[in-house]
Amino acid sequence: MKWLGGRESDNVEYSGRGGGGKLLGGGIGAGIIGLIIYLVTGYTPDQVNRMAGSSANNAPIETNKHFESGSAGNFASIVLAETEVIWDSLFTANGMTYTKPRLNIFEDEVNSACGGASAAVGPFYCPSDQKIYLDVSFFNELKDRFGAPGDFANAYVIAHEVGHHIQYLMGTTQKMSRLRGNGDRSGPHSTSVMLELQADFYAGVWAHYAEKMNSKDNPVVIEPGDIQAALNAANAVGDDRLQKQTQGRVVPDAFTHGTSKQRMYWFKKGYETGDMSQGDTFRELAN
Q1: pLDDT in tens, 64-76
Q2: CA distances from residue 102 to 115, 227, 285 in whole angstroms, order as listed
Q3: Where are the transmembrane segments (predicted)?
């Protein structure tokens, strides 16, 4: 993936380094800690805080942040800018208005409208403030611990979180929240899994159009092997694989994101079709 020299987004803020200790402290079983640390999204920060019994301290926020060329922050900002162009175009084509999310880049700990969180939570989207939260050190985790290296694997993570923003704008998040309030099934057919797989699908839709944007006028260029890197990342963060790594066994009733096979399937479907209407994970999983 070529991205150096690309346009950065104007919707990035920097929280810096949070104060206090790590949120994930003693008293939590190692298996549960591993799942929280290595799942890309799915647990809200306030859920993690209740389990950990801590909260993050406030840190000053630098808005409209731009980063040193070639840095991880620079990369994340450029990827976000490309998602803005693509999703704005798709929403406009469908008679809708795209409201851009903000990306909050932090170190160690952060406060969001969904609660305080540590970097151990992984990247997450908070619908209450329509922000994506990212400690870019997660990119190293994706490479070193998950075995999913490459810029496009990192871009997939950002595109997945933007996918959750798309769900919020489409009203899907709110609908699923109401269903949860009325009692939700657990495991492979839970609303959580359905939401996560649809976010993977939307990440694939972004990749579909990002590839078509390859031109001299667009510094972000998808290269051979990039899509496979994204599929590797989707495979690496499947519930079954993560549970096997952290607990030594697979417990389907505890799934929150979907299996590696499912995550790869839905990303690939979004990438191959580029058709937002084909991402109804809720209908297919209910069968």
Answers
A1: 777 888 899 999 9
A2: 17, 25, 31
A3: 20-41
